[in-house]
Write a structure and sequence with these properties.
With 701 residues, the protein is an alpha+beta fold. It contains 23 helices and 22 strands. Strand 18 and strand 19 form a beta hairpin. The radius of gyration is 33 Å and the shape is flat.
């Protein structure tokens, strides 16, 4: 067996443990630290140390060893926490992440950085508790040599009761000396080793611990099999407890094969060490009649393959459904009923498979307490972070891609939005600014908002900066249009460049990235009260709720989330502007008209404007009127990446396969408008005959 087969499992679980560690560190009250949080942080470091030692990741193993020792002094109350000490712990967590990434990429961690963090931890220990982390007091009680005489059972029971722990005997059957030493060390981390005696055939360790038998077994089964372990009460006189050992999943026993490695293995992999780890300890409970669910790790590639296959199944079902719908209902009633059942089952299957890729927004939001803490400290501001809707789910691919844009927006709000404490106090506000991150579902979209209670955007300042940059602006622009100026390339109103934000780059990239995910950004701001930046994203990029439209003999799909309404345009509401531009008046709002057949060169389409249907859509915060021949209906479609399978097509975001087997293009609202403008500029200046009748009218503004 190749131990490298288990690298990915270790890396994933260690990454989860580091994320938990950071969260607990940020939640710590330095004046009254919670013992459970301190224990959880300690266990995370201990688990990573064990796994690092098993796989021979020396730098990671030594760093976590020093960190673990320091954490042990902290949870015992020997090291009193301060904010700067927590900062050092967070810095150590970052170093562990860097080391983990290096090993994941097949490299060695930076030696200079490794030595620096070790010196930092050693110096902290010497300054605060006067001990060396290597030669000082051990993390747990060191296993003692075999005693010639052992305490009486009654004394052992009293000792366990006094400590608030259960006293039990862990018997190791047919275990070699080296493995036995590792197991005793591991037991010392789970409680206090009171006594130990025996030989290779049966070695008994008396342990005082509040950890359950299941958890003890789960940790030890990395090195030995379950039939080599017996756990009984210390006062039972040698009779094993009624609860029989239960085997842990096979992969965990395999992972322990290299028994010659000195350090203990990654304890969290066996479950029961880190709280809520969701690992096999819970699976074992279920096997004994518990109601807790199990979970497995599956690569994203396998999930994507299933999603693609289900998508193909949906397309096939749609084809069959269309064929059956053309048959006689009376003569083929059984077939009709079967197709209806297939349609429902296929839809349920599709939704179930899609839910596998959905993960809660807490995956994203959990990163920001650290960002806010450090950014606020750099800026000298007092910030309260509030998160809402952490359980709201989003496709995994989108959660990973939204982190960077969201981080930039958060830092921008902290730097430009929320005022310094003295300025806030002078304005009658609380010295502490409030930043809210929220997520919620709305139709087929997820709404993510970054809300601050700062000074808000300054309209006059934005317009002045836009003119200075040569942007085409006017005082008649709406607030929404003015707010969107901050996304212009190189646009910044910062008075000075900082390492937080204000470099004049980034916001345009934020907008492009969000658009690349099929979303758009909205901004709401009120002077003196704050700013809300709203990101609207589809729940997934694999399935789309769309509206089928017909232009000429071609079928197209509009994202349903972008469709606001549809209407028949009348001649009185159409106004011609300079060149070929036409606008449609809809309830006192003038919307640019985009003829789909002109933009995409579709033949045999309706050219008389009053005979078409205007679909009012929204893209990038602006509304447009798309002229189409007919509305066919709404349907859920499987999205196929056009750029991957063919090439990028202007005005088109993706494609899908319809029930009749034909390919329909999914339109990109903003790209379609841009394409329409480009084609109008290339055409001759004369107006088309269809627009001549409109030239006697003037745009009322």
């Amino acid at each position: 067996m190749d131990i490298t087969d288990f690298y990915d499992t270790f890396f994933e679980e260690a990454e989860e443990l580091l994320a938990d560690m950071e969260r607990y560190l940020l939640e710590l009250d330095v004046d009254e630290p919670d013992s459970e949080q301190l224990n959880a942080i300690f266990r995370a470091a201990h688990s990573i140390k064990g796994g690092a030692g098993t796989f021979g990741f020396d730098a990671l193993q030594k760093t976590t060893h020093l960190f673990e020792n320091l954490l042990d002094h902290t949870r015992k109350g020997e090291l009193r926490l301060r904010r700067d000490i927590v900062d050092t712990f967070l810095e150590t967590k970052d170093m562990l992440s860097d080391q983990l990434d290096a090993y994941r990429n097949g490299d060695e961690p930076d030696q200079e950085a490794f030595e620096r963090i070790c010196q930092t931890l050693q110096r902290l220990a010497l300054e605060e508790i006067g001990q060396d982390l290597e030669s000082g007091a051990p993390v747990a009680s060191t296993p003692q040599p075999v005693a010639k005489s052992e305490p009486e059972p009654e004394a052992l029971v009293e000792q366990g009761a006094a400590s608030g722990s259960d006293l039990r005997v862990v018997a190791l059957l047919n275990v070699g000396e080296k493995d036995r030493r590792l197991l005793v060390e591991e037991l010392g981390q789970l409680g206090e080793v009171i006594a130990q005696e025996g030989d290779e055939a049966c070695y008994e360790v008396t342990l005082s611990s509040s950890v359950s038998n299941d958890d003890i077994e789960a940790v030890m089964c990395f090195i030995i099999d379950t039939d080599q372990i017996e756990i009984r009460g210390a006062d039972t006189g040698g009779a094993p407890q009624a609860e029989a050992p239960v085997a842990v999943p096979e992969v965990e026993k395999q992972q322990a094969a290299p028994a010659a490695v000195e350090p203990p293995p990654l304890a969290s992999s066996a479950g029961g060490v880190m709280p809520d780890s969701g690992k096999p300890a819970k699976a074992k409970s279920k096997a004994k009649g518990g109601g807790e669910s199990t979970s497995i790790r599956v690569s994203v590639d396998k999930v994507d393959q299933i999603i693609n296959l289900v998508g193909e199944l949906i397309i096939t079902q749609s084809m069959l459904d269309q064929t059956v719908s053309e048959m006689d209902n009376v003569a083929n009633s059984a077939l009709q009923n079967g197709m209806s059942l297939l349609q429902r089952n296929a839809r349920d299957l599709q939704e179930s498979v899609m839910s596998i890729r959905m993960i809660p927004m807490d995956f994203v939001f959990s990163r920001f307490p650290r960002v806010v803490r450090e950014t606020a400290a750099k800026l000298g501001k007092e910030i309260e972070l509030v998160t809402e809707g952490e359980s709201t789910e989003l496709d995994k691919s989108l959660t990973e891609r939204i982190i960077d844009p969201l981080t930039h927006l958060v830092r921008n709000s902290l730097d430009h939005g929320i005022e310094p404490p003295d300025v806030r106090q002078a304005a009658g506000k609380s010295r502490t600014g409030k930043l809210v991150l929220s997520a919620k579902h709305q139709g087929g979209n997820i709404i993510i908002e970054v809300i601050d209670d700062g000074a808000g955007l300054n309209r006059d300042r934005l317009l002045a900066k836009a003119r200075e940059n040569g942007l085409p602006v006017s005082d008649a622009m709406s607030d929404d249009e003015v707010w969107q100026l901050i996304f212009a390339p190189g646009f910044s109103t910062a008075k000075e460049v900082t390492d937080v934000s204000g470099r004049g780059v980034g916001m345009d990239v934020v907008k492009r990235n969000i658009q690349g995910m099929g979303g758009h950004v909205q901004i709401m701001s009120r002077p003196g009260e704050g700013t809300t930046i709203r990101i609207v994203l589809p729940l997934t990029l694999a399935i789309l709720d769309g509206m089928s439209i017909k232009v000429g003999n071609e079928m197209f799909i509009l994202p349903l989330s972008a469709v606001l309404e549809s209407l028949q345009p009348s001649r009185e509401d159409l106004y011609a502007m300079a060149g070929d531009d036409v606008v449609l008046k809809v309830r006192d709002e003038y919307l640019p008209v985009v003829a789909v057949h002109e933009a995409l060169d579709v033949p045999k389409a309706k050219t008389e404007l009053t005979e078409t249907i205007a679909v009012i859509v929204q893209g990038e915060g602006r509304r447009y009127a798309l002229l189409v021949d007919d509305l066919v209906g709404q349907q859920q479609v499987v999205v196929k990446n056009l750029e991957t399978n063919y090439r990028k097509v202007p005005g088109v975001s993706a494609a899908t396969i319809l029930g009749d087997g034909s390919v329909a293009l999914i339109l990109d609202i903003t790209g379609l408008h841009r394409l329409s403008r480009e084609k109008k500029e290339k055409r001759r200046p004369e107006r088309k005959p269809a627009l001549e009748a409109l030239t006697d009218k003037e745009l009322e503004t």
